[in-house]
Amino acid sequence: MKISPSKIISLLFFIFSGFYLHTAHQIQVFTFDENAAFNAKTFPIYLGYAGLIFSALYIILPETRPSNVNLKVLDYKKTITLVILMVLYGLTILRVGYFLSTSIFLVLSYVVLGERKWLWIFLLSFPFVAIFMYLLHGLLNIYLRDPFLQYIGVMG
Amino acid sequence: MIEGILIGLETAFSLKNLIMVMIGCFAGTIIGMLPGLGPMTAIALMIPITYGFEPSTGLILMAGVYYGAVFGGSTSSILINAPGIPGTVATSFDGYPMAQQGKAGKALAIAAYSSFAGGTIAAIFLLIAAPSLSKVSLAFRSPDYFGLMILGLTAVSAFSAKGHFLKAMMMVVLGLMLASVGQDTLSDIPRFTFQNMNLSDGISFVLVVMATFAMSEALTIIFKANDPTRIAKQISLSQLGSIKLDKLETKKMITTIPRSSVLGFIIGVLPGAGSTIASFLAYGMERNFVNDEEKQKFGKGSVNGLAAPETANNAACSGSFVPLLTLGIPGSGTTAVMLGALLGFGIQPGPRLYQTNPEIFWSVIMSMYIGMVILLILNLPLIPYIARVLATPRTFLIPLILFFSVTGIYLMSFNNFDIYMMIGIAVVATILRLYDFPMPPLILAFVLGGLMEENLRRSLLISDGSWNFLWDRPLTLTIMCIIAIIVFWQIFKSFKHKIN
Q: I need a labelling partner for A112 at 20 to 30 A (CA). Which of B238, B247, B284, B499 fits?
């Protein structure tokens, strides 16, 4: 028997809703609030049940419009590489600083996606980020932490 | 009243104030286009600048910034599917597909005209009925708000994806679940935080919207890069199209704008409802009004589908000034910031403002309207240049969208945890989108989650735990009946489709 991916996702959502409901029951409320008409766990409990009902209905009922996805044409390599680059960007943004980590992220992303116009790659990374930073930090007065620029003395 | 309007006009039309409104519109558009910086932030950024000005000049500058930021938000919704504020999420449903079809210029023009028309009609309503409408806003109670929110969620699930009602309802529940993360608003009890301090304040709207719309859209484009149907779409991205509307498109807008304006204004008047519910309800209502042929185009680049939420959004913005100016109650985050600015100028909005300071009351209303006129004059010639964003090659555009998304959330929290969470949500959203699980219901549910719980809490406490509040008042009962009709109609349609 072949199960459609949408039904598998619904089954996962059913399990997730069960976990959510269990966690909702574990929420510690104040003693005087235990028997109140509404407390901090009332709404989440209703949500947990709603999640279970809707996902169960989708699993049980026949699919009216099954989604057809051709998995063979999907580009897994580039997508996963971009996700990894974003994780690395998140990892370095505070430690290295906004300017350097953003510029390097942009350069690597352009290259991963197949871009080879090096002048444009440069212009749309380092100078672009510098202008963007000036707009935020210089004009709109939004603080951006940047240990690298502070180290080389560009930022106070 | 006429005297007040004339005083307002005289103030707003002085050379100094006209220059201020122009600067405000331009700055607001730029700020609104940046991810994470919506009208609320834009106005907040202007408050320190305006303190040196006269109250009317300061308010005029802020009105320009307000409308500019709303238009800027629509621009990023249409061009890169990145709605910076909840009010422009519905704009992306048809605006973005239209831009993908090589009609970005036209989509931006429709957004500009609709916003202007919605704002104009709402401004007229505001002039005529502001004092008396404040009484209407007070007639709505917690059960009615709760019903109105369920109606909004059911309506958006019903129209978001044909034949995928249950998938949409699952997304609604998921959105509400995400909204429940963090401290309980009343008791401060942590919920679903798993002792992680980063979750105690909950998950931010910008994070969820950027992850589910902009970031997951960018990842989907790369994921489906080899899909033959997708390649055909990419070629059309380089076409900007004309900003001129043909007769049929104009006719469609003429029928859509009045009804969406009325709906948007009424919803805007209700404190707490705001432009988000207005734009979603207008979209749903419009889908029910149009013929079957046009209905099929919804979500694929419909003129009506773009004009309706844009009109309602702007009409609601004007409507939200009714409770602010007449009752002193800010109905939305933006009007709350505006209230702060008014108080900073020594102006106390409320029932007495209309009688004691009519010049301030009318100056604010007039300046809002002039802001919209200037915005239209300034932005229409700029549309072809703004739309050129889409002509950027995909190899540059995708990383830039990802960069804007990460920056948007980084500017709000300055921590890595939110960036990782955003990446995680984006990956899940990309997989869900692949199998036609719609994202708009998730976003609306996320936005309304807190308010919905608050109104349910009040309703249940007032009725001592009984669910009778759902049918005790005629207004609530009417709303619940409409919800029941939508749900049964969707179930009936599914079975009918299966039998056929």
A: B238
Letter string b/e over residues A140-155, b meaning 16 or more CB atoms within 10 A of that residue's CB: beeebebebbeeeeeb
Owning domain of residue B473 = 2-499
What is the rounded average pLDDT of the residues B319-344?
72
Query: Which residues make Cβ contacts (< 8 Å) with residue B100, sequence separation at least 6?
Result: B233, B236, B237, B301
Beta-strand pair B190-191/B182-183:
antiparallel
Regarding pTM above 0.80, the answer is no
In sequence order, the 6+-apart residues with CB closer than 8 A to the CB of B484 are none
* Helices B474-499 and B142-160: angle between axes, nearest 10 degrees: 20
**Interface contact B395-A114, CB threshold 8 A:** yes
Does residue B414 belong to the interface with chain A, where contact is any CB pair within 8 Å?
yes
Residue B328 DSSP one-character state:
S
**3-state DSSP assignment of residue A92:** helix
Gap between the Cα atoms of B44 and B433, Å rounded: 35
- The tally of domains found in chain B comes to 1
How far does the CA of residue A137 sit from the closest CA of chain B (Å)?
A: 11
C-alpha B430/C-alpha B437 separation (Å) is 10
Highest mean pLDDT: which range of A116-120, B331-335, B368-372: A116-120
Write the pLDDT tens digit of every residue in A102-141: 999 999 999 999 999 999 999 999 999 999 888 888 777 7
- Rounded to 5 degrees, what angle do the CA atoms B284, B287, B288 make? 95
Rounded to whole angstroms, the Cα distance separating B275 from B85 reads 10
Tokens read off for B380: 């229409």
Residue labelled with tokens 């510029």: A103
Alpha-helix runs per DSSP H in B238-357: 247-269, 274-289, 292-297, 303-319, 321-322, 333-344, 353-356
Q: Do A89 and B186 touch (CB under 8 A)?
A: no
**What digits encode the pLDDT tens for the residues B63-101?**
788 888 888 888 888 888 877 677 788 888 899 888 888
Please name which of B363, B386, B321 lies closest in space to residue B26, comparing C-alpha atoms: B386
Whether residue A101 lies within 8 A of chain B, CB to CB, comes out as no
Is the pLDDT at B232 greater than 50? The verdict is no
- The structure tokens 């007032």 sit at B462
